Amino acid sequence: MASPSLTERTAQDVMHSRYVTTDGFMTVTDGIELMRQYDATAIIVDRRDEKDELGLVLASDIAKKVLAVNRSADRVSLYEIMSKPIISVRPEMNIRYCARLFAQFGLSQAPVVDAKHSVIGIIDYPRLVIGWETN
């Protein structure tokens, strides 16, 4: 099967799976260890129930909200520093619109979420650019 043309590429075509999922009560120290272990760029914080929303912790959140202000990573839980609710993208979203969304809201990466509200990947600027330029 031929790959989609540059103008038809979607988030699902270029997303990656370098993320981990956990609950918000994990400490930042444990979250960092998970990121190292799985070479992850993001931590997705699970919904507590079906009425809750997903959370997101990036390395930049840890650097700005823990490291820079000299907080103890052993005493800070992920829920204290996560972004919630998050901006996510649909798998079928065209990568041009993903890039516009990132620019409009100052995002560096976003989860790709299916119709069942499950994270199926992560999209970021490097994947957008590489996906756009690859034939």
UniProtKB/TrEMBL annotation:
Which positions make up the signal peptide?
none
* Key word Ribosomal protein present: no
The CBS domain extends over 82-135
Instruction: Could you list this entry's UniProt keywords, alphabetically sorted.
Output: CBS domain
Give the matching InterPro entries: CBS_dom, CBS_dom_sf, Diverse_CBS-Domain
Q: Which Pfam families match?
A: CBS (PF00571)
Name of the protein this chain belongs to? CBS domain-containing protein
Organism, per UniProt?
A: Vreelandella piezotolerans
In the record, what lineage is assigned to the organism producing the protein?
Bacteria, Pseudomonadati, Pseudomonadota, Gammaproteobacteria, Oceanospirillales
